[in-house]
Specification:
about 30% strand, Cupin_2, Cupin domain-containing protein, single chain, Jelly Rolls, about 160 residues, mainly beta, three-stranded antiparallel beta sheet, 3 helices
């Protein structure tokens, strides 16, 4: 629940709690916004996982209606990669903040290891493939941030053709 400066909730305290339990994930954002709708609190685990992805992906920016930035939470088990493919973006800058575990990122310049608490960044047109190595002993949880948020900006990259 969102609290304003007075410590009160989002103004919906009088609503029947049973109604809240019956709502699906599509309605969560209205319940977790302040009265003006300018702020939102979201727990990524409350969002639906995106299907047909190599790991667990939750689209935060889409859920709260952000248009200028893409924010996603990934949870990858050992051996899983975050994106669908090795790729680069034509216009988008990306940052991967490692919340837990250690992220591996393959690039044409070599592999980077990104420990918990660190951030890996990629400029536009910089190919990368983020993944959790098969020999990892734990899942890796990553908050991925990309700006601007653009659809169709990812370009597959084949390191053997470079």
């Amino acid at each position: 629940m969102v609290s304003d400066e007075s410590g009160n909730g989002n103004g919906n305290e009088d609503e029947d709690e049973d109604e809240d339990e019956d709502e699906d994930d599509g309605d969560w954002k209205e319940e977790n916004r302040n009265e003006r709708g300018a702020y939102a609190v979201v727990d990524p685990t409350d969002l639906e996982s995106v299907e047909d992805r190599p790991c667990d992906l939750r689209r935060i920016s889409e859920a709260v209606g952000l248009e200028g930035v893409a924010i996603n939470r990934f949870l990858a088990e050992p051996g899983e990669q975050l994106p669908l493919t090795y790729h680069y973006h034509e216009r988008q800058e990306e940052a991967f903040a490692v919340l837990s575990g250690e992220l591996a990122v393959e690039t044409p310049d070599g592999e980077f290891r990104v420990p918990e608490g660190a951030v890996f960044t990629a400029e536009p047109e910089a190919p990368h493939r983020a993944y959790n190595p098969e020999d990892a002993t734990a899942p890796v949880e990553v908050l991925a941030i990309g700006a601007p948020s653009v659809d169709g900006d990812a370009v597959p990259y084949d390191p053997d053709e470079s």
